[in-house]
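Researcher: Next sequence.
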Amino acid sequence: MTDGQAELIRYRLSRAKETFEEANELVNSGHLYGAANRIYYACFYAVVALILTKDLSSSKQSGVIGLFNKNFVRTGDIPKEMGKFYSWMFDNRLESDYGELIEIDPDGIKQDLAAAAEFIDLITAMISNK
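Model: Next structure:
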């Protein structure tokens, strides 16, 4: 891994943590649509950092999901439930950003926030062990 790659990985993990904090603040203030968006992006930044450890990248979010599933979920490095959660958050973010007459369940978004914390912690630990 080059110094540039290591720096980019650190940057993406930093963005994941900062974006997670934004999501937490949005949940606490009742801004649930924004929270759904920020939860997804916090996870996205963590996943981008993880796939960079294998010198992989994609310019499309669907490509990032595919690389994540192929290289980490299918191999068993990431539990399948976490892979499903990440895909769920992608779909949830699309629906909350672009859907018509969507209602977000406050309890559900709090569960998503807690799951995102576990997700980001798992990825951060995996990267630290590389």
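Model: The helical segments are 3-28, 32-52, 61-73, 80-98, 106-128. The radius of gyration is 14 Å.
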